[in-house]
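We were asked to recover a plausible sequence for a given structure. The inputs and outputs are reproduced exactly as logged, with field labels preserved.

PROBLEM: sequence recovery
POSITIONS: 386
GIVEN STRUCTURE:
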């Protein structure tokens, strides 16, 4: 049977224009850069226009495809609010390969810098620079040959993300083919002054040393068969015991070969975690932070799960599971604009979004909730801090 045509998009169906009041000054620099690159002087669709159309896509569930973006661009209200003219489908497709996604990175950093961390408790203050790092697959079409994953029958792009846990915001992101090394991408994203929390897929002693040499620290889960030579057994206080900490050791990590990658001793904190089936799993957490209380080491690793929740939000709510471009450049632009959309929502709500807030925003953008009801929800969040 023929596919039922989608209803025509009308101006009354679109929401979220208020976000552009904050973003337009930041996007203006994209317009200036694109103008300098347009030597022929005949480009109608500039980078700021392209990014604005993508933001419209993320803020409006009714716009669900590149053709939907093109249709929305024909509306007079859209053209007035985004300060751009009608975009052709060919121009939108070409733009994915022409514009430089790296120009969006300063905007991500600037918006992230506007969000203040809610460091009000002892734990949050101690872990103020905690940064969770992980990767997540974005399903790709079979004809996207660059997106290699597993074998010739599977294609996927991979989003590598450094996520500020206490702020609840993304910090650095890269896009690669699905089979790219997560450790290599962490090396690309390394910054100074961060406390990285990583899973055992990143367990490489040379990488641990590179993090320290870069002026940052780490909390990393190491494999259950890790070997070490114990130097000191540290005492556990009541908070550590309550957090499930079983042992806190200072060790020389690694055997004769792998241990040579490390320049100094590390801590290994052993934590027992209760699983859903009632069993207790043992986690071995290595860190260079000798000053951090053992219960905070355990808590920091639990916080790593927040980056997984952000992946779910990005793919399931904002729609990055559906890729609008088939080239890696275009996929990177789509993901970066999705991150910008998420940061704008965080700035609007004034706190880390919760699942309930996600739902309320979706109700609003889908037309089920009024703007007054959404504002009332946000005000209620301020009365009941997390």
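RECOVERED SEQUENCE:
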């Amino acid at each position: 049977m023929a596919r039922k045509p989608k209803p025509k998009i009308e101006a009354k169906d679109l929401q979220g224009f208020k976000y552009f009041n904050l973003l337009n000054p930041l996007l203006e620099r994209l317009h200036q850069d694109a103008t300098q690159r347009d030597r022929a002087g005949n480009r109608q669709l500039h980078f700021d226009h392209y990014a604005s159309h993508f933001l419209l896509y993320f803020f409006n569930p009714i716009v669900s495809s590149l053709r939907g973006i093109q249709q929305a661009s024909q509306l007079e209200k859209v053209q007035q609010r985004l300060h751009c003219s009608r975009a052709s489908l060919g121009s939108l497709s070409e733009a994915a390969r022409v514009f430089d996604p790296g120009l969006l990175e300063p905007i991500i950093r600037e918006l992230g810098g506007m969000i203040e961390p809610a460091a009000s408790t002892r734990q949050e203050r101690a872990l103020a620079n905690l940064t969770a790092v992980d990767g997540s697959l974005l399903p790709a079409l079979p004809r996207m040959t660059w997106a290699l994953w597993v074998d010739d029958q599977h294609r996927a792009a991979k989003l590598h993300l450094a996520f500020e846990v206490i702020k609840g915001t993304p910090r650095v992101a890269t896009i690669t083919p699905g089979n790219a090394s997560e450790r290599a991408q962490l090396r690309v994203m390394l910054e100074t002054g961060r406390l990285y929390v990583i899973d055992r897929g990143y367990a490489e002693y040379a990488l641990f040393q590179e993090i320290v040499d870069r002026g940052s620290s780490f909390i990393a889960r190491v494999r259950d068969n890790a070997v070490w030579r114990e130097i000191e057994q540290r005492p556990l206080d009541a908070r550590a015991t309550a957090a499930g900490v079983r042992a806190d050791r200072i060790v020389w990590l690694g055997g004769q070969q792998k241990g040579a990658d490390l320049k100094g001793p590390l801590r290994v904190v052993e934590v027992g975690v209760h699983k859903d089936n009632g069993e207790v799993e043992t986690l071995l957490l290595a860190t260079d932070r000798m000053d951090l209380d053992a219960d905070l080491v355990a808590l920091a690793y639990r916080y790593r799960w927040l980056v997984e929740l952000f992946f779910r939000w990005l793919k399931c709510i904002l729609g990055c599971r559906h890729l609008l471009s088939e080239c890696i450049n275009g996929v990177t632009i789509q993901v970066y604009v999705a991150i910008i959309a998420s940061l704008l929502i965080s700035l609007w709500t004034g706190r880390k979004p919760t699942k309930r807030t996600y739902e309320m925003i979706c109700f609003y953008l889908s037309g089920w909730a009024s703007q007054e009801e959404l504002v009332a929800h946000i005000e209620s969040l301020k009365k009941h801090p997390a």
